[in-house]
Amino acid sequence: MFGLPKYNVWRAEQAGKAEFSKAEQNRRIKIEEAKANLEAEKLNAQAEIERAKGAAEAIRIENNSITPTYIQYLWVRQQNNLNDKTVIYVPTETNLPLLEAGRIGNKAPLY
User: Fold this and answer.
1) Does the pTM exceed 0.70?
2) Tens digits of per-residue pLDDT, 41-99?
3) CB-side neighbour CA atoms (13 Å) of 60
């Protein structure tokens, strides 16, 4: 019976060591998760930068090389996406479509 108090102390010490180890492991897990999140955010930022560079390059190319004829071609090409809508093309003196004209009956007449 005299060994029971020593055993209780030893058992409490072992339980404390186990709790400490568990807390230490949980802390390491949180640190690794934070590192993974940081790495993911860095990669997302790099991807966003690359998208912005691509968009800027596309704008630069368009600003230097798009002609009125190409704009007309793009307008005609996108007409395929209108499905069942009717579009009447009336060329102007510059051979570009009137993109802002309204439908008959929907708006006041254009004079």
Assistant:
1) no
2) 999 999 999 999 999 998 888 787 777 777 778 877 877 777 666 666 666 777 666 65
3) 6
21, 34, 53, 57, 64 from 60: Cα distances, Å? 58, 39, 10, 5, 6
CB 68 within 8 A of CB 93: no
Listed in sequence order, the residues at least 6 apart from 102 whose beta carbon sits closer than 8 Å to its beta carbon are 110
Residue pair 97/75 in contact (Cβ under 8 Å)? The answer is: yes
> Phi/psi of residue 24, each to 5°?
-60, -40
Q: Would you call 34 helix, strand, or coil by DSSP?
A: helix
CA–CA separation, 24 vs 80, rounded Å?
63
Q: Is 109 helix (H, G, I), strand (E, B) or coil?
A: coil
Phi, psi values for residue 94, rounded to 5°: -100, 5
> Would you say how long the chain is, in residues?
111
d(CA 58, CA 52): 10
